[in-house]
Amino acid sequence: MAAKRKRKARRASAAPASRGRTAKGSAKGGRKAQKGGGGGGTGEWIKSVCYAFILFIVMRLFLIQTFVITSGSMENTLLVGDFLVVNKAAIGSRLPFTDIRIPGYSEPRRGDVLVFDPHHEEDMTLVKRLVGVPGDTLQMRDRVLYLNGQPQEEPYVVTSGRPDEFSPSMLWQLNHLVEASGGDYHPTRDNWGPLLVPDGYYFMLGDNRDSSLDSRYWGLLEGWRFEGRAARVYFSYNRDSGRPFPWIREIRGSRIGDRIQ
């Protein structure tokens, strides 16, 4: 009996020590797990940032971009200080540094307000209205635009009443006249044509007809130069204001969200 009591006493004294070692080992394992979880969290955060950056690049290159109006050539449709959302997916987008285009879900249409990269100026982006597509015949007489022989109603057009003017840069039109001029063709800002728009090219005009350098002056635009269709105004302020902080004090709230037509 004495021997049995001794064996029970040894087992009882050993149990707390074993439990202590188990608890100690669990605490170490918990600390290791916490360290591993912290490293995993940092890795997931870096992945999320990378995914967001890639998504931004894809959207910027192929879906949408922004554009700021800095001149009055499209007044009153677009005002200086308007910030635009440009739909690049509508008519397709150009791969950077190439002439290759990814097809869009629609074609450029007459009347579209389009953003494009002009051939006559490097590092410049312009916005104008498309008035002539391949195969169209265009002419202007006394500020009235004729499309395929028919006068056009253009409620968005504004004029200042400035006298008509000639520019030597307009003589590019000689190579696109519907009929030979016999050497006496003298195009002016308000009187020119008729011109035939060839395949692959487009004719662009500004809505502010007396104050716009457009296809009348620098010629036809290749279709691959289109960047996208101007969709909406997402912010606007009076950029020409003389007041301090015009982007805060001169916001045109009524224009924000306007669809561009």
General description of the model:
- The chain has 261 residues and is α+β, with helices and mostly antiparallel strands.
- It folds into 2 domains: 31-62; 64-255, Umud Fragment, subunit A (Ribbon).
- It has helices at 2-62, 215-218, 246-249; strands spanning 64-68, 82-87, 93-94, 101-102, 113-116, 126-132, 137-141, 144-147, 150-151, 192-196, 201-205, 221-222, 226-236.
- A hairpin with a 2-residue loop joins strand 8 and strand 9 (150-151).
- The longest helix has 61 residues, at 2-62.
- 23% of the residues are buried.
- Mean pLDDT is 83; it is low at 1-9 and 11-38.
List keywords for this structure.
261 residues, alpha+beta, Umud Fragment, subunit A, 2 domains, 7-stranded antiparallel β-sheet, 4-stranded antiparallel β-sheet, 26% helix, 23% strand, globular, disordered N terminus
List how many beta strands DSSP finds.
13
Termini gap: 105 Å
Considering the protein shown, what is the CATH homologous superfamily of the largest domain?
Umud Fragment, subunit A
CATH class of the largest domain: Mainly Beta
